[in-house]
């Protein structure tokens, strides 16, 4: 599930030549992932597993391309180009799926999957960067950096906190419950995310323009109405996931996984609460700095 970084909400408010600094801050926001990959690569190299180091490097390439891809896709959304956005995402997914299938059939295994991801991510980043250069250009503008740093640097702290919160449950459960229970939990999480999938079209429409709506005429009232509609839709989506998830588990999985059905309603409720937070935090990002979100 791809989300629009809060930092990218500054794009419509900034000069076009400030895009480079936005990209730099986006890379910084990816630091937890990059640090984890770097540590993994160094560790496996030290213990004499060059295959694992190569796989970590391929995964690192794909992750490093993420900010470039994120900026390009965010620009499409901010320019109200949903058809182009959807077409690019469909083409990228199709290309990666085809390449993964071909490499697996050729016997490359996991390294082939990672190689496919790295190649497609690099190609997508290059295409989006080329399009961005043609449309807006990129120029180093030190005069804009102070404003961007004041807003973006605090978001790095909130990004680190989000990284910890997003995986803390797995860290705790991995050493505390049997493997079969962890498998049930993982299945329940996947089915609860049906709610997030159902709300994705609304979020793709609303998030790129929420700052613009808030700053426009009668912005607070209009934002409140839209947020209320989004919250109602999130509740409906969570209810659908809570009902459909257990049915799917019982009907389509072995008996060993049926215990996951009991977790789905609670996890779907958590997904709805997370959606509420994403919807109502528009005011936090309306300030001159990113201190309030932090």
Overview of this protein structure:
This protein has helices spanning 19-29, 31-46, 50-64, 66-78, 82-105, 109-135, 142-174, 179-192, 194-206, 210-215, 219-252, 264-280. The protein is mainly α. Mean pLDDT is 77; it is low at 6-18 and 42-48. The chain is globular, with a radius of gyration of 21 Å. The protein has twelve helices and no strands.
Class from secondary-structure proportions: mainly alpha
Largest sheet: none
Mean pLDDT: 77
What gap, in angstroms, lies between the N and C termini? Answer: 22 Å
Low-confidence stretches: 6-18, 42-48
Order of H and E elements: HHHHHHHHHHHH
Q: What is the radius of gyration computed over CA atoms, rounded to a whole number of angstroms?
A: 21 Å
User: What is the overall silhouette?
Assistant: globular
Give the helix tally.
12
What percentage of amino acids are in beta strands?
under 5%
What fraction, in percent, of the residue positions are helical? Answer: over 70%
The overall strand count is 0
Keywords:
mainly alpha; 294 residues
Entry summary:
With 294 residues, the protein is mainly α. The chain has helices at 19-29, 31-46, 50-64, 66-78, 82-105, 109-135, 142-174, 179-192, 194-206, 210-215, 219-252, 264-280.
Topology:
Elements: H1 19-29, H2 31-46, H3 50-64, H4 66-78, H5 82-105, H6 109-135, H7 142-174, H8 179-192, H9 194-206, H10 210-215, H11 219-252, H12 264-280
Helix pairs in contact: 1-4, 1-7, 2-3, 3-6, 4-6, 5-6, 8-11, 8-12, 9-11, 9-12, 11-12
């Amino acid at each position: 599930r791809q989300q629009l970084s809060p930092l990218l909400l500054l794009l419509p408010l900034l000069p076009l030549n400030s895009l480079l600094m936005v990209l730099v801050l986006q890379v910084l926001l990816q630091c937890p992932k990059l640090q984890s990959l770097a540590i993994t690569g160094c560790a496996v190299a030290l213990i004499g597993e060059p295959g694992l180091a190569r796989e970590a490097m391929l995964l690192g390439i794909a992750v490093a391309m993420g900010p470039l891809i994120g900026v390009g896709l965010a620009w499409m959304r901010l320019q109200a180009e949903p058809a182009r956005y959807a077409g690019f995402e469909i083409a990228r997914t199709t290309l990666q799926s085809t390449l993964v299938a071909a490499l697996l059939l050729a016997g490359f295994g996991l390294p082939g999957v990672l190689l496919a991801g790295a190649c497609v991510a690099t190609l997508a980043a290059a295409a989006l960067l080329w399009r961005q250069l043609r449309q807006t250009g990129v120029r180093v503008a030190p005069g804009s950096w102070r404003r961007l740093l004041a807003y973006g640097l605090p978001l790095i702290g909130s990004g680190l906190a989000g990284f910890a919160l997003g995986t803390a449950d797995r860290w705790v459960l991995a050493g505390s419950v049997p493997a079969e229970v962890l498998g049930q939990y993982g299945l329940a999480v996947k089915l609860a995310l049906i709610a997030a999938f159902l709300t994705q079209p609304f979020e793709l429409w609303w998030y790129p323009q929420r700052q613009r709506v808030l700053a426009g005429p009668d912005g607070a009232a209009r934002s409140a109405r839209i947020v209320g509609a989004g919250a109602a839709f999130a509740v409906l989506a969570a209810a659908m996931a809570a009902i459909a998830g257990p049915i799917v588990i019982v009907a389509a999985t072995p008996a060993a996984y049926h215990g996951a059905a009991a977790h789905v309603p609670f996890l779907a409720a958590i997904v709805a609460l997370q959606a509420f937070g994403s919807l109502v935090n528009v005011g936090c990002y309306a300030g001159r700095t990113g201190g309030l979100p932090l």
